[in-house]
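Lab notes, practical 5.
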Amino acid sequence: MRSRRVRTSGAPGSRGARSLGCGGSPWARSLGRLGSPRARTTPRPGPGPGPGPRPGTGPLRRHSRRDDRGQAALEYLGFLPLLLLVGLAGLQLGVAAYAAQQAGTAARAAARAESSDAEDAPGAVAAAHAAADRVTSVTVGGGPGAGEVTVTVHVRIPSVVPFWDDFGTAEKTATMPLPATDEERP
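Output from the prediction step:
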């Protein structure tokens, strides 16, 4: 048998509508005997403060949620310079490490060129400048009497931090043996 709805009072869908017949419609079963689930008069058992006003809505509350609008944006703007400073410091550390690596490469290239016995080999200064940018000085030590050549290269560390231009230089040293001469060979 199909159930019928009879409107007892109010508009359709109000708590006054009841189901006639066996089982009724799902809408009528959802209302149950107490009416709408939102119309409970007793609190449900479980954790919580129980009946009473919601926390933060009493007379001691001084401001509303509308007073907090934009607070996160202001906190972010206050924290942004610190974030930028930390980011630039990390970037500057990476640039300094790159300059130190370039100084090591230039020192090895200069020592290799100085220790070469080829007639058309470049000089130590030319090899250092060809191997790295921002080379500020190349110092060659040792020589034929010492059996080895030592080259020290200084590379300027570029700045990525605004208004702070002097981060110094990166210094690396490389030593290469000199080739044996005709008198030293057996």
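Observations recorded by the TA: Helices lie at 26-31, 71-115, 124-131. The chain has a mean pLDDT of 75.
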